[in-house]
Amino acid sequence: MKRTLKMDSSFRLCFAAIAFGFVFITNGKLSSGTTPHEADPPQASMFAFSPEAAPLEGDDYLADKPVPPFVPEFPVYIFYLGERKHKDAKLVKQSHFAILKSVLGSEEAAKKSMVYSYHHGFSGFAAKLRPAEAEKLKNHPEVIILLENRKLVMQTTRTWDYLGKFSTPTSSKGLLHETNMGSGAIIGVIDSGIWSESGAFDDYGYGPIPKHWKGKCVSADQFSPADCNRKLIGAKYYINGLNADLETRINRTTEYLSPRDRIGHGTQVSSTVAGSFVSNMTFPGLSSGSIMRGGAPKAHIAMYKACWGVEGGMCSVADVWKAFDEAIHDGVDVLSVSLGGSALKSLDAEIDIAIPALHAVNRGIPVVSPAGNEGSRFSSVVNVSPWILTVAATTLDRSFPTLITLDNNKTILGQSLYTGPEIGFTEVISTDDHSNLDQVTKGKILLHFSAGNSGPLAPDVVQKNGGIGLIDMRSPSDDRLECPVNFPCIYVDLEVGSELFFDIHTMSSLKIKISPYKTIIGESVASKVAKSSARGPSAFSPAILKPDIAAPGVSLLTPRIPTDEDTSEFAYSGTSMATPVIAGIVALLKISHPNWSPAAIKSALVTTGMKTDPHGERVAVDGGNYKAADAFDYGGGLVNPEKATDPGLVYDMDINDYIHYLCSQALYTDKKVSALTRNVTKKCPSSSSSILDLNVPSITIPDLKGNVTVTRTVTNVGPVDSVYTPVMEAPFGFSVKVSPEKLVFNKGSNKTAFTVSVSPGSHRVNTAFYFGSLTWSDGVHNVTIPISLRTRFIPDFFL
């Protein structure tokens, strides 16, 4: 029996739907961003729901001048040394102290300076140093890269039914059945901790912990090994890097100094990736007896808490690297890392997660990370290294219409999650003057135009001034605002809102009736790439298509954590929550195909992705212009778990391909490559080697001028004797040809290369990107890769 904390209560579960934004990094410090907000007290129902939202910035805009960022006397710096020199971790750690001692002069000073030694998955260390000392160490012969300890942020039922994977959990066939629901897999989660008491982490029916597992559950602030079980088999935390760079250190009054989750993000991610079955869910709109579960419901979870409840959720690079280091050592099979930095083109920002992820992938551990929540802006995608599986977020086939009845016999539909009593016929008004809301809105419903001169209006402001409800007229690309419980916040598009606005101003008095929302599920509801989901191409490496794949990340049913007052609720949506959906599927694929590399798994997902939703409707994009999604919105498409189990062909890669990428981006020299691999004979490929030939499951040419030929190699993972023929859908106006005209596989040959020759065709000016695809088909398998082409006859001229 687990002990009960003072915060214990029956668990609330929610549809996650608050847009969780990125934080821009400026000189290693936070400059702006969005954060999850606490919601108002929940209803008696076990669930709470908040529409996808971006909280207001509050009074920060009113400040006369910005407060200068805190700069510690001894900032934390990270020194990356490549692959380990020694198999013995103790010797690796001793070598780190020796390097520090060479600059600081004594062993005592080196120990005082050291924050972390990374000596399991790779070699490096984090240390508190003066800038001059760090600069001196940067020139040490063993140091490959010096990084500042920047800050990263976290990016946050129906899901599995929607994907067609878990509609019949007792089915005798399919990926879930064939892998025994992920039994034996260990999924590592780097996030904000975990609330172990949730039913999502129950271990009923679990077998023994895998023998290769080396991890543990630590004892710390309101958490002990007794809080773990055969489901949650590892729980650690890392805070030294972040605390060293904060003006006010994190303490027990604001956080749990342990793996316990204070803000809820890690608990939601963990339950989404591998939550156990939780039966008899009740929530308005859900059918009786609904079941909540994760992607790999019988997999084990290991939590590595590296993110903390400050400034809306913050993680330091030094802490995240230590989490990677120990996760590799402990024996995780998959890593779900819902973190990221800024989309600004920055070598350092690209390295923050990419370097430790490369070492994990090189050991056969797939790393799944979010595309980011800076959408729908062009080139906003992050986590763009080719060894990372980068995930975009989509909506589900679910809608929450609210009926608005006008007293002139008209009816209109809005979107809301209002579950309170029906609001009888009440006068509705419209005003842009917010100075006297208490006088004009009391006892009335307010129609507000968020894109107007007055800007957004917080629903709680309307409520506090006596308003009965808010109808918010906004474009699809606008972020929604957090709504108080039992207060109707109804969102209508510009067309519907304009009609209502016209009626208000042409009638002497207009009254409306608001009914509680209803739920529509199924093919009548369009699936869209979420407006918050970041878009390609990569600003850092535009020749590598990102994101890779898309999965549901909006309105997911997940556990909530109780709080001190047992009233506050948290909700997260976006690529943070799409990431564990993919990570759970990856865990199942790894069990199904234990010999597949992380690149092969990624290829299987990308080449079988759906361009339509499960109902056959083309996936669209939410935000700005409503259009069909393309490769920069969702990569290979919406994930198709069952098809990915049997892709036919895969585009595989290994460390040599990744070195090719690093060298082609001028990130690595021969010296750095040999240090990365600890192989002195390893060098960068010849200068004639092109990044366009990297064996990724896509073809992206951002600066086409003349004729270009790219090469790809495919490996047959289907029937031994197979013949594939190409089906080319060339991007508009371009000439695209593939050679040879067929690929033949047999017992003696399971791998072959082909070339794709591309020319501008009819284009004579600098163009935007155009999209197409190449499919290799044997009549059973259709192995499709996206093609994205743009001409650049005038270099660096984009007008």
Automatic annotation (TrEMBL):
It comes from the Eukaryota. The active site is at D191 (charge relay system), H265 (charge relay system), S576 (charge relay system). Residues 76-151 form the Inhibitor I9 domain. Residues 693-788 form the Subtilisin-like protease fibronectin type-III domain. Keywords: Hydrolase, Protease, Serine protease, Signal. PROSITE patterns: SUBTILASE (PS51892), SUBTILASE_HIS (PS00137), SUBTILASE_SER (PS00138). CDD domains: PA_subtilisin_like, Peptidases_S8_3. The keyword Signal applies. Pfam families: fn3_6, Inhibitor_I9, Peptidase_S8. InterPro entries: Peptidase_S8/S53_dom, Peptidase_S8/S53_dom_sf, Peptidase_S8_His-AS, Peptidase_S8_Ser-AS, Peptidase_S8_subtilisin-rel, Peptidases_S8_3, S8pro/Inhibitor_I9, S8pro/Inhibitor_I9_sf. Residues 182-609 form the Peptidase S8/S53 domain. Belongs to the peptidase S8 family. This is Subtilisin-like protease SBT3.1. The gene is LOC104718199.
